[in-house]
Amino acid sequence: MTLSYAALGSSFASGPGIAPVVDVAAMRSGANYPHRLARLLGADLTDLTVSGATTATILAEQLPGLPESADLVTVTAGGNDLRYMGSMLHTAWHRLRPRGIAAKMLAAEFPDGLVEPTAADVARAVAGLAEIVDRVRERAPRARVLLVDYLTVVGEQTVPAPGVPFEPDEIERFRGIQTTLEEVFVTAAATSGADLVAVSGISRDHGLGAADPWISPFTTDPATTHGSLHPNARGMAAVANEIAKDGSTTAPA
């Protein structure tokens, strides 16, 4: 029996900037980790991932497309709830193109400058992930639900450099948000009873500035900027391989 696999999530699942593009509006790649995992498992894939999604938009816009027959569901979200990538992109664009359209658009999200995620932000992200798990189980009762966290962006090798347009104190701030996001997943998994695939742990040595980075550097090139600071093809392959290691992701008998 062929495994039915559905993917929910935001840009760290959808794969902006990675060819081939299969949905321009969603910035969804045909080589993102859901597509790679489906090939590894020989599964039928329903890829609902959308760049920019929050836990709230997944509940409202992605859950209705989830097949009730799904056997496996992966969820990668929460970063946008904490404005993780928004903070990094806001900083990068304001440093390199402060009068550009991107900088002006991002400024609307940060009218008072960068702010750390509050306790309320963290609680909402945890609750959002837990609710996604609950709603998946209601809609697809036989599905195994995996929370898949975010690849490491800021590693020990991450320092100011071309493609890393940040000051040392900014890098530490982003590292702090990254750690908070990892803790959100741990708490959400414990709260919901979902299994956690912590790809943050396998990617410590593959952040920005590493010898073998799994994250694309920041660029202002219009043709490639949408993939800035997001997983590259090697990173997506690593995530798919890590999930596939678990023998329980095989097709039901």
Shape label: globular
Q: Terminal Cα separation, in Å? A: 6 Å
Taking the sheet with the most strands, its summary is: 5 strands, parallel
Q: List segments where confidence is low: pLDDT < 50 over at least 5 consecutive residues.
A: none
In DSSP terms (H or I, runs of 4 or more residues), the helix count works out at 9
Strand order within the widest sheet? Answer: 4-1-5-6-7
CATH class division: Alpha Beta
Give me the CATH superfamily.
SGNH hydrolase
Order of helices and strands: EHEEHEHEHHHEHEHH
- Strand content is 5-15%
The structural domain count equals 1
Describe the structure.
The protein has 253 residues and is of the alpha/beta class. The chain has one domain (4-249): 3-Layer(aba) Sandwich (Rossmann fold), CATH 3.40.50.1110. It has helices spanning 11-14, 33-41, 55-62, 84-96, 101-107, 119-139, 168-192, 199-202, 233-244, and strands at residues 4-9, 21-23, 28-29, 44-47, 72-76, 144-148, 195-197. A 5-stranded parallel sheet has the order 4-1-5-6-7, sandwiched between helices. The chain has a two-stranded antiparallel ribbon with strand order 2-3. A hairpin with a 4-residue loop joins β2 and β3 (28-29). The longest helix is centred in the C-terminal third of the chain and has 25 residues, at 168-192. The radius of gyration is 17 Å and the shape is globular. The model has no long low-confidence stretch (mean pLDDT 95).
